[in-house]
Write a structure and sequence with these properties.
Blueprint lengths: L2 H12 L4 E5 L3 H28 L8 H22 L11 H11 L1 H4 E4 L2 E7 L2 E4 L1 H18 L7 H21 L3 H18 L4 H28 L5 H11 L10 H13 L24 H33 L4 H25 L17 H19 L2 E5 L2
Length: 400
Amino acid sequence: MPRERVKREKLSIVKEKPHKEIFYFDYSLLLVMMFLILFGLIMVYSASYYEAMTTASIGDPAYYVKKQASATVIGLIGMYIVYRIPYQTYRKLGYIPYILCYIVIFMIIPFGYEANGARRWIELGPIRFQAAEPVKLGMIVFFANFIYGYRKKLNSFKTMVIMLALTAPVSFLVWQLTENMSSALIIAAICVVMIFVASKDYKHFIALGVAAVAAAAGAVYFIVWMAENSGADATGVRGERILAWLDLESYASGKGYQTLQALYAIGSGGIWGKGLGQSIQKLDFLPEAQNDMIFSIICEERGLFGGIAVILLFLILIWRMAIIASHAADLQGSMLVVGVMAHISVQVILNVAVVTNTIPNTGISLPFISYGGTSVCFLMVEMGLVFSVARGIRVTNYDE
């Protein structure tokens, strides 16, 4: 056999198989998210139809679920639009998302709408939305860009101080201008988690965590001391909530009423629940049953099994996002997903903790499930960011 022919045959043996890169799409994540949304619509109807039917100004049992469904459709459109935009595009925005957060917060002064004793909504003609929700989205986008830009200096103590300094005024203004302390804490938690995940030096965060726990314990001690010496009224609204958390039955007719009714709902549901639509607590016993306290209605109607199943679904959601974050094409994409993960996980933990009286009562909705058009719209836009990052992951497909 000629030498040239032998050489050609050897080359053909080591020749690589043809391959191509394909876009990655996490169908498991989409399926879990859609299940939570559909389950949320069912539970919103179940928890709200009695209130909607008996309220003279409404009179439609499906009033709340119709509004939630409309917001869900808008959210799906927003999610798809954001999914189609390459997330690297947001690098060009620089500090614009951060500046927009301030603009949205200060819009509460001329365009604020008051409901349930709180001025948390912005009303622009037919459009009404809760100011804190776009701020959460804006801070996620901004910090992902900021961390990517300072990726070589993330272990610097100075960089961490700068990022915390950028977070503090936004959280403070949300707390003061919108009277929404829970959202202010969530915004701060989102930013701290993003900084923590991006940094390799954890000793600063350990010190920060110890200081936060010490400050919280000191605040509780001070409120208890003030109540003993000056009376509960001297502690203010939030002080009374902490006192009710410590001694729920003593405040059963006041600040502890809602939490106590939620615990009754959870306890009466047992293991398997009373059945869908069979809740007793939603019949004018539990205020805002379709909002912050919807998890207690889930436990009453679907039992402990239903409550644990919902928590497991959220864990699967977080797990799938963690996989996307770990395989993202760059640090910016990873941080975008981490920001959304932090938002959803912190909000789920706080909501369940409030309903079970693990922490003092504060207004925190359960993502994708609680009634709230602004919340579900912006959560789905955030999920669009996650899917956009996943779309940037390249998977090599070898032809057989």
